Amino acid sequence: MKKLYLLAGLMGILLAGFGQTSDPEAKKVLDAVSAKFKSFKAVQSTFTLRIEDANGQALGVKKGTVYMKGPKYRVSITGQEIFGDGSNVWTYDEAANEVTITQLDPSGSGLTPQKIFTSFYDKDFLYKMNGEKKQGGSILQEIEMTPVDKTKAFHKVYVLVDKKSQTISSTRILEKNGNKYSYVVNNLNGKAVLKDDLFVFDKKNYPGVEEVDLR
């Protein structure tokens, strides 16, 4: 089955952690983002993922939606979906009409969208404030991240935080090969009303789907 390399790779970069504090002001901003997200009972957010090469040429654009409620989540991106009910994870590939089922890491160290907004600065990075800038009617605070491990495929991560809402506006990752990944949060609703069955893969809605159960 085709894996969700693009989405998982982006999440892996984000979730690697932003620690070893070098700037108390940056930590203060990130702590506020984490606290704000934890105050939401359920979240629905739309996003755009863009990829550019070293020359600034677009390599791809994907739009998607992420739903989160407690430990449950669902990510829908062009041609792909991930469902997590807190115990199991279903990874669906539309092109192959195939779903892989795995068990959520019981240690809590597995990748989940929630960690993007709460535990994304625990370790492995030095970070600093790069100041503020206006974008539309918002004031954005830019935080620059540098990985401690120099063997990483990327050398910089930039996070823009909306100063008023204390939420992430966008994330930009610069790879050593020159490629650039940008994850833009288009909308974030912290008062979403989400039913529990939204987070469970229902094969009745995917006629002919092939299941690969790895639990």
Characterise this structure:
With 215 residues, the chain is mainly β. The protein has a single domain (5-210), classed as Lipoprotein localisation LolA/LolB/LppX (outer membrane lipoprotein receptor (LolB), chain A, Clam), CATH 2.50.20. Helix content is 15%, strand content 46%. It contains three helices and twelve strands. It has helices at residues 5-15, 24-38, 113-118; strands at residues 42-52, 58-69, 72-77, 80-84, 88-93, 98-103, 125-135, 138-147, 154-162, 167-175, 180-189, 210-213. A twelve-stranded mixed beta sheet has the order 7-8-9-10-11-1-2-3-4-5-6-12. It starts with a helix and ends with a strand. Residues 1-5 and 8-21 have low confidence and may be disordered.
Features:
single chain; 215 residues; mainly beta; outer membrane lipoprotein receptor (LolB), chain A; 12-stranded mixed β-sheet; 3 helices; 12 strands; 15% helix; globular; disordered N terminus
Number of helices: 3
Per DSSP, what share of the residues sits in E-state strands of 2 or more residues?
Answer: over 45%
Quick one: CATH superfamily?
Lipoprotein localisation LolA/LolB/LppX
Helical coverage, percent range: 10-25%
Distance between the termini: 16 Å
Order of helices and strands: HHEEEEEEHEEEEEE
Instruction: Give the overall silhouette.
Output: globular
